Amino acid sequence: MALSMPSEYLQDLIVGYVLNNLNLAEAAELEQLMAEDPAIAQHITQEIAQLQRTLDTIYPNPIMPPPEHLRDRILSAHAQPATQPASTRKPTATPRHRTWQTPLGLTAAALILALGLNNIRLWRTVQTLQAQQQQFETLTYALQSIDGTQPATAIITINPNTLDASVSVANLPPLPPDQVYAIWTLPQSDFPATVDQRGAILTGTFTVDASGNIVSEDVLVPSLFRESDLVDRVTISIEDADAPQVHRGDPILIDNS
Fold first, then answer.
1. Is the predicted pLDDT of residue 61 greater than 60, yes or no?
2. What is the DSSP code string of 199-239?
3. What is the DSSP code (8-state) at residue 188?
4. What is the spatial distance between Cα 31 and Cα 123, in angstroms, rounded to a whole number?
5. What is the distance between the alpha carbons of residues 241 and 102, in angstroms, rounded to a whole number?
6. What's the pLDDT tens digit per position in 16-47?
7. Which residues of 215-251 are buried (b: 16+ CB within 10 A; e: fewer)?
8. Can you tell me the distance from the alpha carbon of 104 to that of 110, in angstroms, rounded to the nearest whole number?
């Protein structure tokens, strides 16, 4: 089969279809190509099937489906005999020059390399898909008093996927209005994080009422919790309500990990 358009450009359209990031003009062009020439339609269908299997190997979870009309056109291409002569139609868009070393037997490694070197837009799409599909386990930090003799405790539960946190405490007394409890994250010493003079990151503040219930909470979880081995310790101290980041207080609670 002789294709009238550059193979790199057609391959670009096919990969864009599989990753579902064709713009309207590109989608319309691919659809028109398949409508004009059943032989090209069959070739495109085979390439899409191969690339989809490759992506399924890398990312077993399904990605967003392509437009229904274009998907139906491609699925129906299986039933069309390749008897019509190849179209002499030229691509309406300027071919985007890329080095697609991708035969039908494309491997996952070759696909990632091609995307990474020659197609920044598609590479970012793949990276986004990978990040969306990666799930992290919930982290729980149980904090107790430094010497273990005080009854106060705290439980901090962190969802690394959303960087949300919940805090529960017991036996912590209420503080004067000008003070707050501050939560600190201490990264491993060899991790290049921005920390204060005590090697800590201010992660949140909260206050409790006379019954020991949290009445005001403001927690901002740093992204290093997505790699739990980067976290050395989590502590709680008492700080100035107007400037907790100054970090004058010593830890009153520390996780026992």
1. no
2. S-EEEEEEEE-TTS-EEEEEE---GGGGSGGGEEEEEEEEE
3. -
4. 24
5. 60
6. 777 777 788 888 888 888 888 888 888 888 88
7. eebebebbebbbeeebbebbbbbbbebeebeebebeb
8. 12
Written as six digits, the tokens of 4 are: 């009238």
Q: CA-CA distance, 170 to 214, in Å (whole number)?
A: 10
**Coil, strand or helix at 187:** strand
Half-sphere exposure of 96 (CA within 13 A, CB side): 13
Token reading at 84: 């019509």
pLDDT band at 4 (very low <50, low <70, confident <90, very high): low
Query: Mean of the pLDDT values across residues 92-111?
Result: 42
User: Is residue 116 predicted with pLDDT exceeding 70?
Assistant: no
Q: Can you give the pLDDT at residue 30?
A: 81
Length in residues, the chain: 257
Question: Which conformational region is residue 113 in: left (phi greater than 0), alpha (psi within -120 to 50 degrees), or beta?
Answer: alpha
Residues in Cβ contact with 210 at an 8 Å cutoff, skipping those fewer than 6 apart: 174
Across the chain, the runs of DSSP E, i.e. the strands, are: 139-145, 153-159, 164-170, 179-187, 201-208, 214-219, 231-240, 251-255
Which residue matches tokens 């069959």?
42
Residue 86 clears pLDDT 90, i.e. is over it = no
Which neighbouring-strand residues pair with 153? 144, 170
Q: Which amino acid is at 59?
A: Y
**C-alpha to C-alpha distance for 179 and 187, rounded to whole angstroms:** 25
